[in-house]
Amino acid sequence: MSSTETQEYSPYLQPGGFKNWFFTVDHKRIGLMYLYAILFFFIIAGVCGLIVKAELLAPGMQFVDYHGYNVFFTLHGTIMVFLFIVPGIPATLGNFLLPLMIGAKDVAFPRLNLLSFWIYVLGAFVVILSLIGPWDEAWLDTGWTFYTPYSIDSSTGVIPVTLGAFILGFSSVLTGLNFVVTIHRMRAPGMTWHRMPLFVWSLYSASLIQILATPVVGITLLLLIMERLFGIGFFSPELGGDPIMFENFFWFYSHPVVYIMILPAMGVVAEILPVFSKKAIFGYRAIAYSSIAIALVSFFVWGHHLFVSGMSYWSRWIFSLLTFAVAIPTAIKVFNWIATLYKGSVKMDSPMLYACGFIFLFSIAGLTGIPLATLATDVHFHDTYFVVAHFHYTMQGGTVVALVGGLHFWWPKMYGRMYNELIAKVGFWLLFLGFNATFMPMFILGYWGMPRRYADYMAEFADLHFASSLGAMVNGIAYIVILGNLVYAAFKGRAAGKNPYNSLSLEWSIPSPPPLTNFDEIPTVTTWTYGYGEENT
Amino acid sequence: MANHSNWAPGTFFHLHEEDPVEEYENFKLGMWIFLATEVLLFGGLFAVYFVMKWRYPDLFLAGAAQLNALLGTGNTLVLLCSSFTMALAVDAAQRGQQKKLVWNLVLTLAFGTVFLIIKFFEWKAKIGHGWFPGLNLDIFFSIYFMTTGLHLLHVLVGMSFIGLLLYRAVVHKRYHEENFGGVEIGGLYWHLVDVIWIFLFPLLYLI
Amino acid sequence: MSSVFPEYATEAARQVDHVQFFIFLVMAFWFIACNAVLVYFVFRYKRKGPDDKVSTVKGNHTLEVVWTVIPTILVLGIFYYGIKVWAGTRTMPDDKDAYVVDITGQKWSWSYRYPDGQTTDQDLYVPQGEVVKLRMNSLDVLHSFFIPEFRIKEDVVPSFYTYLWFKADRAGVYNIFCTEYCGNRHSQMLGKLHVLTPEEWAAFKAKDYFEVLTPLEHGKDLYVKKACVGCHTTDGSASIGPTFKGIIGRQETLTDGRTLTVDFDYIERSINKPDDEIVAGYPKGQMPAFEGQLTKQDIQDIYTFLETLK
Amino acid sequence: MSSDRKMGHVQDFKVYVGVLLALFVLTVVTWAASTVHFGIWNNVIAVGIAAIKASLVIYFFMHGRYEKQETWAFIYYPMLLMAFLLGGLFLDYATGSSRTNKENYQAKPTSITLIHGEDKSHGEAAPAGNHAAPSGDGHTAPAGDNAAPSGDHAAPANDHATPAEDGGNH
To answer: Which residue from A519, B174, C242, D56 has the fewest beta carbons nearer than 10 Å?
Structure first.
């Protein structure tokens, strides 16, 4: 046990009060503030998603008109991507756990960490600002991809949202920068690169992408704003611009950003599996290096978003080949996770349930990516519901399930209280059922050629849409159950010990909730964080 | 900024202390990474430049002919000198020579303002011809105003950064052998601004 | 092989179905294999007590190499098969005698021009068994021309021509979708592709395929085909554009304050150049300019249709 | 305070002056190289000399020579990404993009016309359709997928005027 504190131990949550939260530079509090902000936006975007699904319940327009449907699917996309899932795991669990896992007192630049949180809030405010104004003038209806030339001559609030996304880009770059410097320079003595937890490896590769991809979308959105304000002719065809160039620049950022979303989720799963199967992770270096490999390869593959936009023959040929290069490291990770359970002693608590659910859903997501990478089939599946199902399996089935699993796993560490295990399991199965009921029919809709972003559809697609919309309602209820359980546990849960799941990782060696300066004195790390087999002799 | 005692620990004004050499190395690595993002920001613009040059080659030749290469070369030389004096300023801070540090910072700011003045005349000439963003400009001048405008913004940010360093060096006498990190960071940023102009000058003015 | 795809109508589509079926087999195999092993491990190694004997294996290099090499080979195989089929569908066989149709996409309606100058709206008529090349261009924003039964799709880009080609083997009526988001009525930008048998095709070329419409019916048909229905209602209810109920002879005040009674000249001027005289209170720039697409006779027919709307 | 490791490295004065002179010389060389017309090679030369000047500044002025390998990673990798971005873009544009330019469609009245004053109509609203002022851009109207085995015929023959042009005749 670390030497007793000079003054008695007080968790990081005291002292409270607005001043101490508004000006805090403690990475744990900033992690919590991010958590509250992104869950708030998750609920808003989720409601928008449910409105979209409610509208698709039956052919014909029941609840909203065409413009309303376009507004809500745009809001669902924009808020989910820029405000919830890009900050997502790195900003919440990443901020909270990175210094704890590598044995540091705080991130490299604490003030910059606080600055990037308030830049995030400013960006979120500017995005929400676009909703102020007349219904058919201000509410953005261009889809979260802002494709020109529609986003140039659309009368709706493109400028506030793109400006907000530009500002959020800064917050994401600064967080990435903070994490990379922290991992490079502030690891505890003895914590070599190959003794770091795999969550830190995945945060490192996600931060690399955040740093290197975000500036390109920053300049693209800036050019879009300039084009709308000053009529500078980069993207609009009348002024000699090329709308496909916008697509190229947008997806040069937006494909790496989907790997920012999924890599930390893979890191969380790689943390949960060894703890609940009491066995060392299988192929530590394979998983660590495939995280970095995905981060590097993710910059070469954006062309598959433009397969049908009139690209040249050889351009499609090469981008299809490169897109398959991303499938290999992902496959290696999945195999290594499954091998981790071999000859372990598996305890199916709720975090483990989420981790196995992640593997199940993510294997569907990964495998349905193959027809989208193959040119022959992608020409048919492009911009149909097959793509919608594919990326929801990756984002919701992957990232959100891993985020919720991670929250369950580290909740005792964050708040020092345990959640109700039964409700958590019920919540998982409700989510699993609702999610599959929503998105499995969409694959078949994609086969039939039902295009994306359609407010109304022809009669032959009606029954699958009906089933999918019902599933979406169950999906929504599941989140209410899960988040309610966690929030209740944060206040009234029974006290959790220092290490309820007796994990060997560094963050479980300090009392929970951890004191302000994490470690009394920086620990020297001598063993590997997954040495489960050896100790118990 | 001194740690005000009445703030609770772990807040903006009451940080835990870090070993100065450690902090210096962190600061420098962080700055280099930030420079990488700036390079990619301008990289996106240069990519637009190359694509549009491919699509409208003679439009760009005509546009470049329209620009005043002499002013461009002048600007390049001015920025190179400002980079030189900035490097000397960092060198002076490392050696702890206060007077040389202050003089070099002042010289860098002077070269910066000369750059701004030349840029002002150039833009005034362009606007005189009626090519100003907002008049449905053609591609070349859109790119011209976009790149030089963004670069100008970075020059202004860099100069205010150096102004802050000057204020701290003169009033607080903060920079000496043991604590010159701030000057080095300012220098890195200013050199980046110069490097971007080095790439921008031939592409826009000469070819 | 009963595939979930809609019935294929071209040889190229049949091959695409084969590629997808092959990929589906690969997907199903790996999915079932991985998750069966996972579920087996979960139950086989269920935790019995706190100090179970646990293996300390950390990794296995040969296994790592095996499950890197096998997916790589598999994935390259899929890539090769996919590229070979796609090259067949994408490159035109020989386009000297291809039947070229010009397609123009504009906000929320398709219009087609045939080599002999004939034009149709919304519905495309092509001969069976002949190589047809579609040369596509958009007048305002990005659209995308998609025929699910042929498994072909290509974006329609303003200021550029993009092309698609197919050889329809089976006559019939197929759907046309717009799959690139193009604004308010993106979901209504539909059409039908009629693959005509040789004798129907001969009738179509001789221009008597369609029964001759009276001016009133032709006006009503244009009202639907040219997507006026999207923004102008006939029952008086408000929409993007002014309603057509009782429009003839109505007093309208324009955005620049002038007031005028709606007559044939105003209708013709606002059809050709809508943005010059917008009625106050309605958004500018929403209505595409039909100048050059509608003859004076067409506008006359539309006018006769509007007169009936009291 | 473990200050045994020295902070930063000091270079002597001559290094800085030498680098400055080299930069001046290279600027003049760039200007000279641009006056000679090498066609496409002009771009490569200009970017090459600029890259040399940039590496001089990074290596000496920014003390790049003392930086560890992790910092140099963040100098090289953005350049690699730029190469990929440009490579991906020109893979599409240069190898015969299957988007052929509409034959008589051109961009806005260009600065060429403004200079020679032929087209005084600058400033009027850009008509949505086509413009008269042609500025040759032969590059973008290659024969469709000229890399593709068949390669459909060159820019469409003139008898199919663009649909928006002549009225539909029944």
So the answer is: B174
Is the same domain home to D22 and D41? yes
Domain presence at residue A286: yes
Q: How far is D64 from chain B (nearest CA, A)?
A: 10
Give the rounded distance of the alpha carbon of D70 from its chain centre.
Answer: 29
Q: C160 CA to chain D: closest CA distance, Å?
A: 5
* Count of other CB atoms within 10 angstroms of residue C4: 13
Mean model confidence pLDDT for chain A: 90
Task: Give the model confidence (pLDDT) of A360-415 as tens digits.
Answer: 999 999 999 999 999 999 999 999 999 999 999 999 999 999 999 999 999 999 99
In three state form, how does the secondary structure of D72-115 look?
Answer: HHHHHHHHHHHHHHHHHHHHHHHCCCCCEECCCCCCCCCHHHHH
User: How large is the average pLDDT for residues B2-19?
Assistant: 71
CB contact under 8 A, C52 and A345: yes
The band of C95, judged by pLDDT with boundaries at 50, 70 and 90, is low
Strand C143-147, strand C172-178: pairing: antiparallel
pLDDT (average), residues A453-467: 91
Q: What is the largest CA-CA distance in chain B?
A: 66
Residues of D in contact with B188 (CB under 8 A): 62
Closest CA–CA distance from residue D49 to any residue of chain C (Å): 36
Confidence of residue B136 (pLDDT cuts 50, 70, 90): low
Does D162 lie at the interface with C, CB-CB under 8 angstroms? yes
Q: Which of B12, B32, B34, B52 to mutate to test the interface with A (most CBs of A within 10 A)?
A: B12
How high is the pLDDT of residue C120?
85
Neighbours, chain D (3 or more CB pairs < 8 A): A, B, C
- Contacts with D148 from chain C: Cβ below 8 Å: 90-91
Is there a single domain that holds both residue C112 and residue C197? yes
Position A397 scores a pLDDT of: 94
Count of CB pairs separated by less than 8 Å, A with C: 261
CATH number of the CATH domain containing B183: 1.20.120.80
pLDDT at A522 over 90: no
Smallest Cβ–Cβ distance between D111 and the set B36, B138, B181 belongs to B138
Question: What pTM was estimated for this model as a whole?
Answer: 0.89
Rounded to 5 degrees, what angle do the CA atoms A163, A47, A64 make? 90
Tell me if C42 is assigned to some domain: yes
Structural domain includes residue B8: no
For residue range B178-193, what is the model confidence (pLDDT) as tens digits? 888 889 999 999 999 9
* Cα atoms in the Cβ-side hemisphere of radius 13 Å centred on A11: 15
The closest CB to that of A448, out of C148, C157, C186, belongs to C148
**D69 class by beta-carbon count within 10 Å (0-12 exposed, 13-18 middle, 19+ buried):** exposed
Cβ of B37 within 8 Å of Cβ of A111? The answer is no
Q: How far apart are CA C207 and CA D100, in angstroms?
A: 31
Chain A, 169 to 198: residues with Cβ < 8 Å from chain B are: 173, 177-178, 180-181, 184-186
C: neighbours with 3+ CB pairs under 8 Å?
Answer: A, D
D137 CB near a chain C CB, below 8 Å?
A: no
Distance from CA of A214 to the nearest CA of C (A): 24
User: What DSSP character marks residue A131?
Assistant: T
Chains C and D touch (3+ CB pairs under 8 A): yes
For residues C68 and A373, give the distance between their C-alpha atoms in angstroms, rounded to a whole number.
19
Residue C97: per-residue pLDDT: 74
pLDDT at D51 over 70: yes
Between CA A258 and CA A247 the distance in angstroms is 16
Which pLDDT tens digit goes with each residue over D15-31? 899 999 999 999 999 98
Query: Based on the structure, what is the number of domains in chain D?
Result: 2
What digits encode the pLDDT tens for the residues C51-66?
778 888 888 899 999 9
Question: Considering the domain boundaries, does residue D18 fall inside one?
Answer: yes
Residue C63: give the domain boundaries. 11-48+59-90
